[in-house]
Each structure stands twice: as structure tokens, then as C-alpha cells.
Amino acid sequence: MSNIFARQPLQFARSFLFAGTAALLLTPLAANAQGGAPTATAQTQAKNSDWLYVGSDIPRDTAWQFGVLPNGVRYAVRNNGVPPGQVSIRVRMDVGSMFETEQERGYAHLLEHLTFRGSEHIPDGEAKRIWQRFGVTFGSDSNAQTTPTQTVYQLDLPSVTPANLDESMKLLSGMVREPRISELAVAAERGVVMSELRESDGPQKRIADATNAHLFAGQLLGDRSPIGTTASLGKASATSVTAFHNRWYRPDRAVVVIVGDADPAVLAGLVAKYYGDWKADGPNPADPDFGKPDPKKPAAREIVEANQPLALTLAMVRPWKKRIDTVENTRRLYLEFIAQALVNRRLENRARSGGSYLVATVEQQYVSRSVDVTMASIVPLSDWKAALADVRGVIADAVKNPPSQADIDREANEIQAFLVKELENARNEPGARLADDMVRAVDIGETVTSPQGQVDMFKAIRASATPKVMLDISKAIFAAPVTRVVLTTPTAAGGDAAVLAALKAPVTARDDRLATLKADFKQLPAIGQPGTITATSSLLGLRAERIEFANGVTALVSNNKVEPGKVRVNVRFGTGNRSVAADAPNLLWTGDYALVASGIGPWGQNEIDQLTNGRQIQMNFAIDDDAFELSAESNPADLTDQMRLIAGKLAQPRWDPSPVERLRIGFLTGYDLNDATPNAVLDRNLRGWLTNNDARWAAPDKAQISALTPAAFRAFWEPRLASGPIEVQVFGDLESVDYKKILAETFGALPPRQTLAPPAGQRVDFAKHVTVPEIAYHRGEQGQAAAMTAWPTSGGLANPRDARGLEVLAAIFNDRLFDRLRAEQGASYGPVVDSHWPTGFDTGGYLLVGSLLAPKDLDRFYGIARDIAADLVAKPITADELARNAGPIREQVARASTGNVYWMFLLEGATRDPRVTASALSIQDDIAAVTAADVQRLARQYLTPDRQWSLAILPKGMTLADASALGAAPAPAPVPAAAAGGR
């Protein structure tokens, strides 16, 4: 079974991403499928089909078909119709950064970039354009990833036809087998990778590199980051990269995974057709020795980084052991996960009740076939020694005293509920996820099984999770031959010796287990008498029903089987950003965490956790321009209580002070990171800058954060939680529930609500026009900068056709910027162009162009952006350019439109404004109707120099003139190896 536990334990729903997939089909491959497929005997096929399951007794799913070509290429294919018409292709090469020599550091990643430029059989860069014509979006539908142990090429092909599927397989196989590795291509992609390295550089990367080097001392994992080094990349040549490719890119190191809306026999035939004649050059080289944890290396490390918050990493490091994936192995993995969850629950309980740390979590990982490690990540409040002692104390209790059966059952309930949810949703599993799950399983040497197999195995496994068994498991995952700790601190705290002393200090077991609670939904006071339905109607063109209640609540309900066993709920109330004036102080920034965490009626966070344990009940909060939102993903059995919980939040909010104080401390703890890099500056400030410092989007300063109190929090949010109007969206499998009764007893039972009148003159302004870029500063690396330029557009629901046209214009601008700034010149890793057209306001839209850059490239960026804008204004685009950029947008919409999430998003506000429905129904037609003349008209209307705003983010102390001077100077020589060390 795939290692479902190599993820953050608090992100439980994400930790099982590749547990619930399918396994094996013993159907022989049809001979010569699609032409050119080698014939194999049935006996060979049966043997080859077992390659993932050698020695395993894991239950299999007959949806998968496996095979091995005579040259050693392995494949796994299956049919899957989600989304309809899509085929997802993954090519995994068994080579990553730990396979590089010291002189080749970064080559696996550089080769990944070169491979996607094209092959010896197609012109440089033409593969991207071909796939665009097939509706593929570069960067999401076509991408690649390099890790320490593998390189994976990804292609999600929409609207598949036999012709474009065959052509795509041909292109991708040619790129992997025979990439175009010329000196010109190496120079261009080296620039891109150097840009990526530069853009990721900074204190957090230094901390990560130093932490890995310390925790995994003596192992390749400690100093083989996939990005490589300036020195090794600077010396890369076509000859040296080709040698790396020839050594490791071989048929017997390749796995091809294809999942999609096609016959598996056809997919297997295409693998044989385009990979069957691939010949290896010499014997398969042995994998490098990844090394083992060295107990002789130092145990403690202090990392001093100015303006970084206090942080601790405590690691218990064990050698990695290769195991055959069996049911017993799966049992061990599940029990290990429960043991982590037990400790995490206790750590979180201590943080909620006022501990010495803001956050602390433990996580066990099997990392890169190198180590089996249990890590505790800690964010201390102030006294890092006390925080370390407290976390060690919780761990000490976990390995000394067995958990109660009730505690074990609570964590097991969460796992079982998730697995049942995966089983119910199996029919809607996207093919791309199934393909990714298979690749991960191959990488970590484990199998996959079906959702039903997971449920059945876990039911048997949880029965064995007794207090004694769980105590033994806890002892195993928190014991290790090597224990190391890293302290990150903004100022020196006594050096390595002080950190070592804290690690060696005697530890006292801390009992932070949750008290037994008796929370029940019956404790929630009645909301009121069930409401009366005053009107019902259908939305024309949609399978949705509009329901009106006497109290003014409206509901939009869609009873469908798009996602069997799943019901999505979104409750929109009040007026969102409109409830605040553009120039008035506000606490909008506090709602995301503290509003949900502050409780409901008689219940605090712990009681709500108990109420929802093992059930599909949740609550998420968001702010839209015209409403606040409480949303959840539930199921028919839990829908009644799910609706009661959200209605209870609106009717009987609780105002626990602890979450507010925790939020305040969290913001202050991370405040100094806000200008640590250009990216951090943008994340914090960009929306405020674009709206002319509108207080609704401008980030709070330190004084505002420090001044936050529970009383101020309540004073701001209480009237908003009590405001109207209320619109409830319920989409999903409602066949077995009386949704009208549920609505009437919850939201229909609320007292009538008044609208919190928006301040007069609601509008969103755009940043003031400038002729010379404004300047902001960061405190990061001197080689890092960012450039932004933008033009105001519009907003609202009156002209949806122009909104779609601007999306196409942005895609074309982005494509040209990518080609010139990245593909041709290597100046940027990821330039972006974005069109924002708000529907909650009639103003506030913009087209934004930006990139992270070296300071020397700022002038080049502004010049290229200016040239592209002027050309779009002056000349109509070609039919091919329009098709290549509008096609992927249409495909993205077509794929998304098969799900409830898409329609719920588009229909937000539909019960208030009929234009919402009309706009939602016309999207695909509006995109298809965009012409070259429309693109030019919109460019002429909006891309005018007299309204343009620009901004550059520079290292502190640098001026635009300084940056321009750097651009005029000769490029520096590559950094010699000696000078590049240490990072």
C-alpha cells in the first residue's frame, strides 16, 4: 500500500492521496495494438503483469492493467472517465538528484527542463505550441518534477482523439528518449534554472539546506537538493548533460502510467509503439549508496538568521529499510499514523490551552529511500527551551503510558471516515490523481489497492489497535539510534552547546491528554420554529431549484449524482467586503482562523472536534466581495447536523478569547517575514497596492496586529454574523434526505435579518498612474528583485463577454512573455499575467503582468511588457495564436463544468441577481466567441500607457538606477566551486 503517512499529519485529508487507488488487471495485452506493439506470450504477460506486486498480498483492483516490454519499460494503464475525454500520461524515470555526482549537481532538474523544450525530431519549443493546439495548458496540464529519487513528466490531454493521443505519445516519448540538448538550449535553460535558484534563495532556503545537512549528516539526502548549485550548473554543457541523460535515461529505468477515457488495450499498445524499440546503451548502472544516519555526527545545531522567527526541529532518525508491501506492512503504517495522531492531538490541546509554543506537530516520514524519521516541528512563543521541554514531555508520556481505548478510537474514527469517503467518491476520482498516485507508489516501492480494499483492511487493522499495541508502536516511532535538534533563531542563543544541553536535559512526562467530553448536538439550543417556504422555482437551463423562506433566506439546491455520497454546502451571508468602507480600519484579516475556532453556543474547539469525530462535518470561512461564506463538504447521513452546525454559528456564536490571542501571536511571530523576499512583499502588499491602498485589502501593520483584542474582534464580527441576506447553496446527492425540511429547521428557522448597509459610494479604485515604477524594498538577497506592471479594466456582471475576452488576452500576453523572458532569455523562472474581473463590484478589475527577476533584468522586463502591449494594440493576433490560447481556457472550463464545485462558484449570488445565472451559462459560448478583433479591441481599450501602473521590488538600499547599471554591465563569470559552497 502506498505510504499514506509521508505527509503533514494535521492535513489528514491530504495524507491519503495515494492510498485509495486501484491495482491490477490480468488481461493480456492485445498483440500489435495501435500497430508496432510487440507480440508477447500469455505466460510472459502474466508474469510481467505482477511487477508491482512481487511478494505482496495486498488486495488488488482489476481496473489496472500492468505490463513490461521486452526492453524493460514497465507500464500501468487503466480506463477512467473523470473528467470525460481526458487522458493523463506520466513518464517516471528512476533518477533524481541523489544520482548525480558532485560535478553534476542540478543536472537531473536541468535535464527535466531541457526535455520539455522538445526533441531531436521537432523544433525547439514547438512541442508546447502543438499541445496548446490540443487544449493543453503549459505549467498545469504539462509539467515535470524532479525529486531526490525520480524525475516525472506529466501530460493531461483534454478532449482526446485517436490522432492527438497518438501524436502526444509520440512527442513525449521522443522528448524523454532523445531530448534536444544543444549548447544553445543548455544556455537558455541554465538561465531559467539559475533564475529558479535565485528566486528561491533567501533565509528560508538557507535554513532548509542547513537543517537537512544537519539532520541527514553523512547521507546524500543532506546535500543533494534537486536545484543544484551555481558552480555545477555554470559548468553544464551539452556534452556533460547528454552523458548524464545517456547514463540514466534507459528503458529499464522507465515507468509509463496512463489513465483516462480510453481502452486500456489501446493505451498499452501506444506504450509499446513508442517505447518498445528504445534500446539501452550498456548495462544498467547501480543506484548510488544513499548512505545511513551517522551517529558520530553532532546532535545539535543553532542556525542564526536575522528577522526569522524562533523554530525548533527535533528529529529521531533511523536507517531506511526496504520492506515488501504486504497487509502486515500496511497494518504497521496505519498504526504508526494513529500513534502520531494521538500525540498531535495532545500537542494541539496544549497549544489551545496556553502552552509554551504556538504550534507543534509530529510527523513520521520515510524520506527518499534514505531515512525513517520522526520529526517534531515547533514554533515557540518566546522561551524555546521551555517549548522543547514541553514537546519532549508529551512524547515521553506517549512512550511511557498507554493511550486509552477511547483516544485510539477517536483517531481511528477519523481514518475510517476518510477511507469510507474515498470509497463513496471512487467513481469520481480524477484520472490525473490516479496516475500521480501510481507514480508515488512506484517511487517508494509500495503497491496500491482499491478504496474498498483500504476500507476492509483498515477495519481489520483498527481492531488490533489496543492500548498495549499502540504503546509499543509509539515507543518504536519515537526511538532512534540518532536524535538531532535544530534551533533557528534571529539572534544567537548560546550556540550549538546550548541547544545540545537543552536536548540532553532531563525530561518530565507531560499528561496533556484530552479530558472526556460529553458533547452532543442535542445541547445546541433550538434555533427557532421551522420556517415556511413561500416560493419555489427552477433556474432556467440548470438542474437547480430556488427556494424562498418567509424569513428572507433563499436557497439554491441541486440534487444530482455527480458525486455519489457527497453533499457540498455553501452559506453566504451579509455583504462581505462591501460591509467596510475603503478607508475605514477593519478586522477582515482575522476571520479566516479565529472566527471558526472561537466556538458555537455551548461548545469550544475541543467539543466541536468531538462532535465531528468520524463524521463528514466541517466548517470553512471565506470572504467574498459581496458576502461572507461558511462552507463544508458533507454527506447525506451527516447533512442535518452539518446544517445545524453552520446555522448555529450564525445564530449562537461563541466568543472564546484563546483563538483570537493565538491568531495575534501568530501574526506577530511571522511579521518579520513579510519583507524577507520579493515574493513575501508581493504576497502581503500587492492587492492593497493595486486597489490604491484600499483598507479592505491592505495588510495590517504591526501596531494594528498588536492592538487586536477579543473584545475588538467580537465588536467587529458580531454584527456581521448577524447580518443578511442569507443565501444557502446545497449541491449533491440529496436523494435520501428531505432537504426542504432540513433547510426549514435550520436556516429557515432563523429570525429575519437586516442587511448591514454598505457605506455609501462603494467602489474599488485602481493604483494611480506612474511613468516611472514605484519602488518597494525587501531585506533578502541582493540578486533578487520583482517587477509588476498593470492596467485597470472593469468589473461587474453587465459585460461578461469582455471578462472572458480579457482572459484570452491575458493568456496571449502570458504566452508571449514566457517565450521572450524565459524561453529565449532565461531571465525568469515564472513570469505571470493575470486578468482580474470582480463580479461583486463594478470597478476594481485589472490586467497584471509580473515576474521575479534579477535586478539587472528589470529594464528588460519593462521593455518586453511594453513591446507586447503595444503590439497587441497595433496588430491583430493570428488565428493560430488565438486558438492556442483560447483553446486551453475552453478545455479548463469544460473539465471543471462536470463538477458541483464549478457550478456552486459560478452561481454564488444567483438568488439575488439573475445576471449571475446568465453569466454562468454563457461562459463557454463567450470564450468560443472571442475573436482576434475582440482581443485587439480590448487591448486598445485597456492597455493604454496613460493609465498604466508599475512597481519594482528591490533589495534594500538599491535604486532603479543601480539596477539599470547592473543590466548594462557584462554578465559575471560563473561562481567557482569554492565560493559556491556552504549553501
UniProtKB/TrEMBL annotation:
InterPro entries assigned to the protein according to its UniProt record, in alphabetical order: Metalloenz_LuxS/M16, Pept_M16_N, Pept_M16_Zn_BS, Peptidase_M16, Peptidase_M16_C
Keyword match Zinc: yes
Keywords, in A-Z order: Hydrolase, Metal-binding, Metalloprotease, Protease, Signal, Zinc
Any GO BP annotation: proteolysis
UniProt xrefs under Pfam families: Peptidase_M16 (PF00675), Peptidase_M16_C (PF05193)
Needed cofactors: Zn(2+)
Domain Peptidase M16 C-terminal: 236-413, 708-884
Occurrences of domain Peptidase M16 N-terminal (ranges): 86-216
Signal peptide interval: 1-33
One term of GO molecular function: metal ion binding
Superkingdom to which the source organism belongs: Bacteria
Family: Belongs to the peptidase M16 family.
Protein name: Peptidase M16-like protein
Source organism per UniProt: Sphingopyxis fribergensis
